[in-house]
Structures are given as C-alpha cells and as structure tokens.
Amino acid sequence: MAKNHGPSIKDNEKYEALRDEGMSKQKAARIANTPDASEKGGRASNYEDRTKKELYDAAKRIGIAGRSKMSKAELIDALRNN
Fold it and tell me: What are the start and end residues of every segment in region (Disordered) (predicted)?
C-alpha cells in the first residue's frame, strides 16, 4: 500500500514508483498529478521541432528557474532533465 503524500499528490502509488526510479520529487509529482499520465501514444512534438517561445512557455508552466536567460538548447535540456 502506498504512503499518503498529502492532497498535493493525486496518485500516491505512481508517485512512489517514479521516486523509486530516481526521479526528482517535483517531476514525480507532476507526472503523478497528470490525469492521463499512464496513457501511451502522446502526440507532443519533439523539442527540437518547437520554437524557443514554445519551449519557454513549457518551461514556465513547469516552473523552471532561469528560463528567460536560457538558449533553445538549454531550454530543451532543462525540460528533459527536470
């Protein structure tokens, strides 16, 4: 049985599994709180195919600090590793 991580975590089992895989608390929480995170077949475009503004907006939604000074390559790296 999964430990209760409070009201901010919607799927405690998924959160714990992601943390066990080595993900950060922030990333595990973001994935565990996404209603369709377990569904396959996402249609998101590759980061390289997106504009810098699209990458910036995605980084803003996630809350990546320092995004305004990042290049496109740095934004891609931050999005992939956050």
Answer: 1-52
Q: Which domain holds residue 52?
A: 45-82
Rounded Cα distance, 33 and 52, in Å: 26
Q: Beta-strand (E) ranges in 10-72?
A: none
Q: How many domains does the chain have?
A: 2
Q: Same structural domain for residues 49 and 34?
A: no
pTM: 0.52
Are 23 and 49 within one domain? no
Tokens standing for 26? 């922030």
Q: Tell me the mean pLDDT per 10 residues along the chain, length 82.
A: 65 84 84 68 77 93 91 93 82
